[in-house]
Amino acid sequence: MKILIIGGGISGLTAAYWLHKNGLDVTVLEKDKRPGGSIRTEKEKGYLIEYGPNSTLDIYREVDDLCEELGILDNKIFADSTNRNRYVVREGRLRPLPTGPLQFLTTDLWSIKGKLRLLREPFIPKYSGASEESIAQFVVRRTGQEFLDYAIDPFVTGVFAGDPGRLSLKSCFPKMYALEQDYGGLVKGSIVGRKKGGEPKRKMRLFSFKDGLQTLPDMLSKVLGNHFIGGCDVISLRKGSGGFEVIMKRNGVEEIARANRVVLATPARFAANIIHPLSELIATHLMQIEYVPVVIVFTGFDRGHIKHKLDGFGFLIPSKESKQQGYSILGSIWSSAIFPGRASDGKVAFTNILGGARKTDILEYSDRELIDMSLRDLKTILNIGDKPDFVRIVRQPRAIPQYTLGHQVRIKSIEKGLQDIPGLYLAGNYINGVSVGHCIVEAMKLAIKIKDQASKIKITLGTLTKSV
Ligand SMILES: Cc1cc2nc3c(=O)[nH]c(=O)nc-3n(C[C@H](O)[C@H](O)[C@H](O)COP(=O)(O)OP(=O)(O)OC[C@H]3O[C@@H](n4cnc5c(N)ncnc54)[C@H](O)[C@@H]3O)c2cc1C
After folding, report:
1. What is the predicted pLDDT for the residue at 460?
2. 56 Cβ closer than 6 Å to some ligand 1 atom
3. pTM over 0.70
4. 197 band by pLDDT with thresholds 50, 70 and 90
5. Could you give the domains of the chain?
6. For 366-404, b where at least 16 C-beta lie within 10 A, e where not — what string?
7. Chain-wide mean pLDDT for the chain?
8. Which residue, judged by its Cα, is nearest atom 27 of ligand 1?
9. What's the gap in Å between 267 CA and the centre of ligand 1?
10. Whose CA is nearest to atom 52 of ligand 1?
């Protein structure tokens, strides 16, 4: 049986690796020459620049297993545990996000009124409305407007670069949703959940690799060998004898590849174009999944020119603060403070993020404008007046999928449509989690499903003394 996976980001590569490891004939067709999709690391002038994710949470055992099998577990590096502040800007000042219950009461990030409102959370009744709640509606109802403005809004910016007023709580933060559904509230749920035990909780640490996150897709494609083919722009898909025909362009020439199973592991819009000849309905649902653009302005400075201790992961700017103060950036990741090797000695590296749902026209700005916008904000917030000695601008037109209200209904409709096209599967960050870890776990689940279905077919055909 031949399986083709279209898209060599972390989702496609993980699924392919797992199927390959289990003895199935699988090939990845990737548009770029390079594997990794959103994950991309480059090194220049002593800086390590991440074009997409800088790190991901170390919470999945599956990710460890994968790294171990690939022989890269020892290359994993963890965020500096002594510099753990996550700053949020309020009235022009950086204020650390509280990390424990006591700090929730002593922080100057919220007013006394805001704190009193927070204390009422355990007494707020469970939601009984019929319509789906947005993140903003849920958070304001349970904890008040100030907690939304100065904790959850920047957090949502950090994960989705999105607007909490438009994103679905149930789809974006299913665990938070479940705390209310199962236990009646966030505080109650956290306490009862902790008492209940279950699998021991892993430390919430961020990790990357010595040479950046690109290590992971590089190693996956290395193991796949010539089962990873770069430079294949897949155009469409049609039914063929015993399966599918994949139409693609390679070196400007149209080619057809045949397979019994196909996994589309591209962003939703590309998957829509490819699937369109087979199902207009699925294509329409896929097209409805919104993405926001992100621009990264990576800057390198002399450490001596920065007065701040840089004792944390960086800062995020709440949208309320952005509107009031006219900031342009969403936040800044202090890359060289989190992991070693991100800047050479005596230098610091900041990954400044712009765009998202707050500024969807960000791609229209020139390099000069993007640099000026970033430096203006760094000057106001961090008091950096000097020019950077290194700048790299990365434009990501469809950076992060937005799980807006109705997301789960859309995904269910897509899944239902797929039942009419046996042998065709979808994978990717627009389905059930945007983080790198989520993508890996979901891709493994999909690979197991494909293998299970394949072995059932083998058994059925085996009784007819035939095999695929
Ligand atoms: C700027 C940014 C910052 C992020 N920060 C974090 C973070 O800090 N932590 C975290 O955990 N996650 C982060 N993420 C999210 C995470 O990186 C992504 O969700 C994840 O890498 C997506 O992987 P994927 O394989 O699903 O999709 P992609 O990486 O988008 O891969 C899809 C692949 O399909 C290919 N493709 C598209 N069309 C075709 C075609 N027609 N034919 C063949 N191939 C095609 C593309 O070239 C691409 O390689 C970030 C993402 C971005 C963009």
Report:
1. 47
2. yes
3. yes
4. low
5. 2-37+216-278+421-463 (3.50.50.60), 100-196 (1.10.3110.10)
6. eeeebbebbbebbeebbebeeebebbbbbbbebbbbbbb
7. 94
8. 9
9. 7
10. 52
